[in-house]
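Quick one: structure tokens for this chain, please?
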Amino acid sequence: MHVIVVGCGRVGSSLAKQLTESGHTVAVIDRRSEAFERLGTNFTGDKIVGIGFDRDRLSQAGIEHADALAAVTSGDNSNVLIARVARETFGLDRVVARIYDPRRAAIYQRLGIATVATVAWTTERILRRVVPDTLAVEWVDPSAKVSLIERSIGSGWAGRRLLDMEDGRPVRVVAISRLGTSQLPTADLVAQDGDVVYLAVAGDALDQIEGLLAGPAKGGH
């Protein structure tokens, strides 16, 4: 596949090098020619000096036949503008924008622009290690109607069938991690204290998850 990377900072250069090493063709756009030094002498992709939302520069980078574009400059506004030009002007479907402000990221995600909110992503993972009970949201779909979360289950589930967590609720057990090993749930898999579950949850049901994870209600299945 052919990928355009706009922004040759630490993220952009790393992404571009990994893509070329995996056998993909890559074109990198950056305003500063010296930024390309991060790519090293063995980089085989194209290096284009210019503004990432400039249509001529994007055409030079091969956007007409590109499969994907990643806008990873240091500016939120630039990244969103680049993503919109790629989608709306050139009809490119697979576009992702790096966004530093997580509030903006949520808005653009709902508009159909895939985003990576660096601060939010890092903060969630730190919180997950520091405060184990943090409700970590791994992924939210663009309409915000489905979320994928990771969470340790309460001791109340120990000895119970894991799939009983669904039981007519707007929740699906996607996977379970036990003692560092992950697996897909089976019909007869029984939960153990310390298990970590990955759940797909309806967006309007997230506030119910705390009670569910603590354990089944008395008298429940």
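Residues 70 and 136 are 25 Å apart (CA to CA).
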